[in-house]
Design brief:
The protein is α+β, with helices and mostly antiparallel strands. The protein has a ten-stranded mixed β-sheet, with helices on both faces. Strands 22-21-31-30-29-28-27-26-25 form a nine-stranded antiparallel β-sheet, with helices on both faces. Helix 22 runs parallel beside helix 25. The protein is elongated.
Length: 1114
């Protein structure tokens, strides 16, 4: 963020005050719309250290003005700031922006976030509560996610100062001056209703977010002296030591767990419905980071279900506060709701540009009206009023509101289907999605797993597959399956990861946990602090098995791809450490001589068949080891390989159907998973991401080491290595590949993806273009993948179900979280469905909403142009539309049609072509231009036909404007333009292939028929009362009136045919004349390049970075 410092200049401030008074407040309105102008007008630039006003500019170019605040420091805060700055500072200088506090750091010469020092602490500092952590709220602020709920008066002022309402006020004043009292009064009433509804919704939403975000509770804090104080959570600051009760707590801050274990429900933040086990932060290690240490971090807003083992004799757990207020994970998510990033979507950008274009049209109309009216006896005041009136007609103030109607209807339909949206503008963006990423486990496949069998292994090789773990002999393999988990008991019921629950269930062992402060289990197992006990079943097969106690637990980490536990037997004898995780990772931590020689082939066989495979290992810990302080690094090394646990993960029945639907619609599908690459490839084939006749090329990249240069290889084979296919088959495949006969997909794992990004960035776009399977991806790599795909101009969707996908869901253009929660702040969309069937539904609704927004935009633009044409034609004839005539057109015809036009639902199928998103594209501009010409031609024809009649009576030329109503010129233009408003609503309402046909929108059809009947009644047989009310001229000639209706019908036929021809590609001939142009989207250009590249990818040819090649040759 760019920060510029300024100081107030008193004489400039007074000058601006005088200017505001003289301009009747318009100068202040200008300063509100353009904050930079206000700062430059009243301030002088100065260094940040001396500034009292700051001008902020974010990465999106938006500018904000904030005031620098000062505060006297208390003793503790003074010491902290002295440490941060390097010298003592009596006053704290800071500013608040989007809820965050930025403190002036003289040492850095910049304003920095107040929490950074805390997050740079080491694990040791946390465990010893190092003095720099202790501080008052003077530096960090209060621990409150304070969502501002503005008063109705302030909201009213801010709403009225919106450019839309400022334009409305200007228009109303103009209409009142021109004696359009009824119309002005009606617009005032509607505007007031609109403002009241808007204020109510804004305040209601603010109160809802405030109640969700603001959380105040009493907590117990342990001081450095050992005393315990009860205080409000608002008073918490980083460094406070919080005691978490045994029954749990709704966490009011982010905290690092120091002692004990906590079972936490994080569904509000991540959408993950399975509770997560949190374990203490290691006593020794590197610097603390909440993202990499998620398993040791308790996040604000999550529900701690139970805490245990942290306070001997009293139960519960101990944690140290790391972040408060908006600096917490919950605060960050709430901030993203309150202050969303501007959406980079062409439709919204083009809408603003088109309004400027209409402003240009209004300027031309203003000039024309001045020229025409100046030739008559019109006064200069009336000339100004008439000219300005053109602007209010051409630029429809209701346009921005009208184009959101389709989105509102789509959001309502999605909610009925169980899909909740917290960012409505994303609905239109979902209609332009060109690539969708899917997590595997729990998204494409079932959440639960069934144990297929266990295969014990050692250096001598693998034994036979044992289908039932209960049949295993008593030994470390059975103990490892029973003990290596993070399952806990809640109300006597086991709670934890579904995979681990299945694994324990398959062994038959039972879980037991200490009851409160009961030391019975500790005594049974040699005085060790027992976390849980696993007891074997009372059956003959396991009669020799003994109970095992878990005394130390290192939870599973996506980045580490493993977990481990330390166990003891009764009386504290035979201490063992067990490890469970990704087979490749576990094997790398085991002694080489204990890993079977057939490990890779066996793993490849199971993974290729779609099985989920975990490896287990163990080692004996000798008596001199202190089990209570043993570190993870010491446990997870020199292990003995035990074998493989093979689990069957079934693909959800809906997955294949949805993937097929998306591929038929030419939408790329990509799998992003933390599982084995071969298992992922098998699931991709099963669900249809990979066709039966399509082959997989594996990408293998290695980073630079002391002994070797970075390398990149592409190799063929279902198994992922070159020895899975014969040389002749590779040659045949290579020939087919380079001739473009065979389709292929790339598969890559997380390590190779990281090396590819670091050392082969020139190959990354090509791999992304053909990559379908991304395996063993860490959460941050999933986010990076989404970002890299967006750099290729893909509109990326992401569908996932857990915390590992949270970053990617938020980074994607359209993130869909499969969660039971009604709304999760983890992503813009939350689906209550447990499968991906919501994805095509969301895309169909997005396309329907986008097409509806296009239709409404075109209709509102054409409505303005129809009225613009009518007024200019009547100005030429020295007359104008009447007050109630304007009101009839705007309120009865246009508003009703615009409201119901968007009610049509989406098509039942996904079309291969996506709808356009640019309002400034040739078809849209050509459609509006040609329609306008046809509409003007229709109105002029009606006027000429009228003037050519024998009974025609010219209007009173001594009067002008609405004063000489009724007259025949106005009535003929009124009659035809009334039909034009109706027929254009039919013409621009698009159906197939993105929406259901027009006749499915029953309400719209009924309104059309009623309005057509009403208009025909006014034209053919108006009752005297309505005729006088609308100031229409009585025309007795029925043949003439039928001729006007026929002219309107002809106008409709021509406009309908024109719109249909434009939709069918009538303007493609113009594209042929200008020649074929390259697509602006990078992924489309890359696709053409790869299709024309006969030698890519180079199979089984080691590649090195270009710079390494140059160095090697030199």
């Amino acid at each position: 963020m760019d920060v510029q410092g300024f100081r107030w200049v008193r004489w400039r401030v007074w000058l601006c005050h005088i200017g505001s008074v003289l301009s009747l407040g318009l100068l202040l309105v200008l300063f509100r719309w353009r904050p930079r102008l206000g700062v430059l007008a009243r301030c002088n630039s100065c260094p940040l250290a001396f500034a009292n006003i700051l001008l902020l500019r974010d990465s999106f170019g938006q500018q904000y003005v904030v005031e620098v605040l000062t505060e006297e420091l208390e003793e503790g805060s003074l010491q902290l700031l002295c440490i941060l700055n390097g010298f003592q500072v009596p006053l704290l200088h800071y500013y608040l922006f989007e809820g965050l506090r930025y403190v002036w750091m003289a040492r850095k010469g910049a304003f920095c976030r107040a929490y950074l020092k805390c997050l740079r602490q080491t694990y040791f500092n946390f465990h010893t509560l190092h003095p720099p952590l202790a501080a008052s709220s003077s530096v960090y602020g209060t621990n409150l996610i304070d969502v501002p709920v503005k008063s109705f008066m302030r909201l009213l002022i801010e709403e009225v100062l919106n450019p839309f309402y400022v334009f409305q006020v200007f228009s109303i004043a103009l209409w009142l001056t021109d004696s359009y009292y009824y119309y002005a009064a009606c617009i005032v009433i509607i505007s007031l209703i609109s403002i009241c509804v808007s204020l109510y919704e804004i305040r209601k939403q603010s109160n809802t977010i405030r109640s969700m975000a603001q959380q105040i509770t009493n907590v117990t804090v342990r001081r450095s002296s050992g005393e315990e104080d009860s205080l409000s959570s608002v008073e918490l600051v980083p460094g406070d030591c919080v005691l978490i009760p045994q029954e749990g707590l709704l966490l009011p801050c982010d905290a690092a767990l120091l002692a004990g274990e906590c079972m936490v429900n994080e569904s509000m933040l991540t959408g993950e419905s399975v509770p997560v086990m949190k374990t203490p932060l290691p006593a020794a290690g590197g610097r603390y980071n909440p993202e990499t240490q998620r398993r040791h971090t308790l996040f604000c807003g999550t529900q701690c279900i139970q805490a245990k083992g942290g306070r001997p004799g009293r139960g519960g757990a101990i944690a140290v506060v790391t972040s408060t207020g908006f600096f917490t994970a919950k605060g960050d998510l709430v901030s993203s709701i309150l202050y969303p990033q501007p959406i980079n979507f062409r439709f919204y950008q083009d809408a603003i540009k088109f309004l400027l274009f209409l402003g240009g049209v209004a300027l031309c109309g203003t000039v024309y009206s001045i020229v025409i009216l100046s030739r008559t006896n019109t006064t200069w005041w009336e000339l100004v009023i008439r000219a300005l009136d053109i602007v209010t007609i051409v630029v429809p103030p209701a346009l921005p509101a009208a184009i959101t109607t389709g989105t509102i209807y789509a959001q309502s339909r999605l909610k009925r289907e169980g899909v909740f949206c917290i960012s409505p503008p994303r609905i239109n963006i979902s209609g332009k999605v060109s690539l969708f990423c899917f997590d595997k486990t729990g998204t494409l496949t079932e959440e639960g797993l069934d144990v297929w069998g266990v295969m014990e292994g050692s250096g001598a090789g693998f034994s036979e597959l044992v289908p039932d773990p209960r049949l295993l002999p008593q030994g470390p393999m059975l103990s490892a399956m029973a003990c290596c988990h993070s399952v806990a008991l809640l109300g006597g019921q086991p709670l934890g990861d579904p995979l681990e629950l299945k694994m324990i269930e398959s062994t038959g062992w039972e879980l037991e946990e200490p009851a409160g402060d009961d030391k019975t289990l500790d005594s049974e197992f040699g005085g060790h602090r027992v976390l849980a006990v696993m007891r074997p079943p009372a059956c003959p097969l396991q009669s020799e098995s003994v109970a095992v106690a878990l005394v130390q637990r290192f939870p599973f980490s996506s980045s580490l791809q493993r977990m481990s536990v330390v166990t003891v037997n009764p009386e504290g004898q035979s201490s063992l450490a067990f490890i469970k995780g990704a087979p490749e990772m576990v094997a790398s931590l085991c002694l080489r001589e204990s890993v079977p020689a057939q490990f890779s082939n066996t793993l490849r066989t199971f993974a290729s068949d779609g099985f989920r495979v975990l490896a287990l290992g163990y080692k004996t810990l000798y008596g001199q080891t202190d089990l209570s302080t043993i570190e993870r690094g010491e446990v997870e090394r020199d292990m003995q390989f035990l074998g493989l646990l093979v689990m069957k993960n079934l693909v959800k029945p809906e997955s294949a159907e949805v993937i097929t639907t998306l591929r038929l619609a030419h939408l790329r599908t990509v799998m992003v998973t933390g599982d084995n690459v071969l298992t992922a490839v098998n699931v991709a084939r099963t669900c249809g991401m990979l066709g039966s006749n399509e082959r997989v090329i594996f990408v293998h990249a290695t980073p630079q080491t002391a002994q070797s240069l970075p390398s990149l290889r592409f190799h063929l084979g279902e198994g992922g290595t070159e020895d899975t296919a014969t040389p002749s088959s590779i040659d045949m495949y290579t020939q087919g590949l380079y001739q473009g006969v065979i389709n292929y997909h790339l598969a890559i794992n997380g390590k190779s993806f990281s090396a590819l990004c670091d050392h082969f960035p020139e190959y990354l776009p090509k791999v992304l273009m053909r990559g379908t399977v991304y395996a063993r991806m860490a959460p941050e790599q999933k986010t990076q993948l989404v970002t890299e795909l967006q750099k290729l101009n893909y509109r990326v969707g992401m569908c996932g179900d857990g915390a590992n996908d949270c970053g990617a869901l938020r980074a994607a253009d359209v993130g869909v979280s499969l969660s039971e929660a009604e709304a999760s702040v983890a992503s813009p969309f939350t689906s209550k469905s447990d499968n991906i069937s919501c994805v095509p539904l969301l895309i169909r609704e997005g396309r329907c909403s986008l097409v509806t927004s296009f239709s409404l935009f075109k209709y509102m633009a054409l409505y303005s142009l129809i009225q613009f044409s009518s007024v200019l034609i009547l100005y030429t004839e020295k007359t104008n539309l009447g007050d109630l005539q304007f009101l009839f057109f705007d309120m009865v015809l246009v508003t009703l049609l615009a409201i119901v036009m968007g009610k049509g639902g989406p098509s039942t199928e996904l079309h291969p072509q996506r709808p356009p998103a640019s309002l400034l594209a040739l078809p849209v501009l050509a459609s509006l231009t040609l329609h306008t010409l046809l509409l003007i031609l229709g109105q002029v024809s009606a006027l000429l036909i009228t003037t050519s009649q024998d009974w025609f009576v010219p209007l009173n030329s001594t009067m002008s404007g609405a004063a000489n109503l009724p007259n025949l010129e106005d009535t003929s233009v009124f009659d035809l333009s009334g039909y034009q408003y109706i027929i254009m609503a039919v013409v621009v309402t698009k159906g197939y292939p993105y929406k259901r046909p027009l006749y499915y929108n029953v309400v719209f059809v009924c309104v059309l028929l009623v309005l057509f009947a009403l208009m025909s009644w006014l034209v053919l047989a108006p009752v005297p009362f309505l005729r006088k009310l609308l100031k229409l001229y009585y025309i007795p000639d029925m043949n003439f009136k039928i001729l006007l209706v026929a002219l309107a019908a002809l106008n409709f036929v021509f406009c309908f045919l024109l719109e249909m021809l434009i939709d069918r590609g009538m303007l493609n001939c113009l594209r042929l004349l200008r020649g074929r142009r390259q697509s602006k989207k990078q992924y489309k250009r890359l696709d053409v390049l790869l299709s024309d590249s006969p030698s890519w990818p180079p199979l089984d040819q080691p590649l090195v970075p270009p710079q390494c090649t140059v160095i090697g040759l030199s």
